[in-house]
Write a structure and sequence with these properties.
- Helix 2 (10-17) packs across helix 3.
- The chain has five helices and seven strands; from the N terminus they run αααββαβαββββ.
- It is α+β, with helices and mostly antiparallel strands.
- It has helices spanning 2-7, 10-17, 21-35, 51-79, 91-108, and strands at residues 40-42, 47-49, 83-88, 112-118, 130-131, 140-142, 145-152.
- Residues 121-147 have low confidence and may be disordered.
- The strands form two sheets. Strands 3, 4, 5, 6 and 7 form a five-stranded mixed sheet that branches. It has a two-stranded antiparallel sheet with strand order 1-2.
Length: 154
């Protein structure tokens, strides 16, 4: 209903929502049936809100805006990348490709911890301002492979 009011027609509302005009028209008809009022005056050339429809729209518009805001807010928290990312690379790739980009990557994903395993200790040089979880700035060894766990320093 709100899309129809804002767009001024069933066809334009359908375009905005990715629906066909008949689908929008049927949805509005179901809403009118459910609430028991006629929301729109329909002519061949235009639609307009009835008096009851205007009162109904004015009552529900703030609620619809609140629902949309809550959905956007929930989507943002869902989009936050957090946790641990484990990456296994060979030494050359780790040194020349991964290490130079790691600081920027961690800046972008502040809640992500990255564990990098490489084949030799020479492969990862610690990017500036990165420290290991222990705060020593040194990687920890595990099972004869180098395992570095980096987080952006606070």
């Amino acid at each position: 209903m709100a899309a129809v009011v804002e767009a001024g027609s069933f066809a334009r509302a359908g375009e905005a929502m990715g629906l066909t005009q008949p689908a929008v028209s049927r949805a509005v008809a179901r809403l009118e049936e459910r609430v028991g009022i006629r929301i729109f005056n329909r002519t061949a050339r235009a639609i307009s809100l009835t008096d009851e429809g205007r009162l109904f729209y004015e009552s529900v518009a703030p609620l619809l805006a609140g629902i949309e805001e809550a959905a956007v807010s929930a989507g943002k928290s869902k989009a936050i990348v957090r946790g641990r990312l484990r990456v296994n690379v060979d030494g050359t790739f780790g040194h020349y490709v991964l290490a130079p980009r790691l600081g920027e990557f961690l800046d972008h994903y502040a809640e992500l911890a990255v564990e990098i395993s490489v084949r030799d200790a020479m492969a990862i040089s610690s990017p500036r301002a990165l420290t290991s979880p222990s705060g020593s700035g040194r990687p920890s060894h595990r099972r004869s492979r180098l395992a570095c766990c980096w987080r952006r320093a606070s």
